[in-house]
Amino acid sequence: MSEHPIGIDFGGTGIKAAPVDLDSGELAAQRARIQTPSPSTPAAVGEVMAQLCAQFPSHTGPVGVAVPGVVRHGVLKSAANIDQSWVGTDVDAQLTERLGRAVHVMNDADAAGYAEVAYGAAKGRSGLVIVTTLGTGIGTALIYDGVLVPNSELGHIEINGRNAESITAASAKEREGLSYSAWAERLTTYYRMLERLLSPDLFVVGGGISKHAEKFLPKLHLETEIVPALLRNNAGIVGAATQAELG
To answer: What per-residue confidence (pLDDT) applies to 81?
Structure first.
């Protein structure tokens, strides 16, 4: 038997899982995916997670789960793109009982951010690292000298009277048909706001669009170094598994 923890990334359309080798930050087996059930209630999703864990019978470590919402002491306080019945649920306790092993739940952006610091683009960097995921919205993670400050939700800061992610996320670029240059102007405004508020040492940019980082990151005009994420679609799994092992 192996003590590799299993990471689960719970999204609005799919739930992905894999055991993680914490020495390398790499998946210890091929990733499995099951479509998110509808409705995505805690009971239905718990059943899917049990099925996913059963696909890795030789991996008996704890389970880390990345969820799209604010998590405080194992309890979900918000629910983005999943069933609202999750709000107020003690997810740690419920999934620990359902899976029969220790479960640690965390915000999905926090999971991805921590993975980038532990194994990815920000590995070995000190000071304040801000990891942003540009997608339907903007997810953020704050990590200071390797310590995660959870639930930052900086995609919701106000810029010119509007929620930042509504005009700056990758979905806004697609919805409005913005060129990379026009989008970069909005991104510059957003990241400059974060610079003024937090004075970070490094920005890391994730999300699916980060694979095209060369088309927009050089167009940003910032004081802070900004680099693309490295772990891509595995970041949530790796970060969640790492935090599960830490307890």
So the answer is: 80
Listed as ranges, residues in the chain with pLDDT below 70 are: 1-2
| Distance, first Cα to last Cα, the chain | 20
Q: Is the Cα dihedral 103, 108, 114, 120 positive or negative? A: positive
Give residue 239's pLDDT: 97
pLDDT tens, position by position, 15-24: 999 999 999 9
Position 1 scores a pLDDT of: 52
Model pTM above 0.90: yes
For residues 118 and 157, what is the distance between their CA atoms, to the nearest angstrom? 27
Confirm if 69 and 54 have CB atoms less than 8 A apart. Answer: no
Q: What is the mean pLDDT of the chain?
A: 95
Going from the N-terminus, what domains does the chain have, and what CATH number goes with each? 6-107 (3.30.420.40), 121-229 (3.30.420.40)
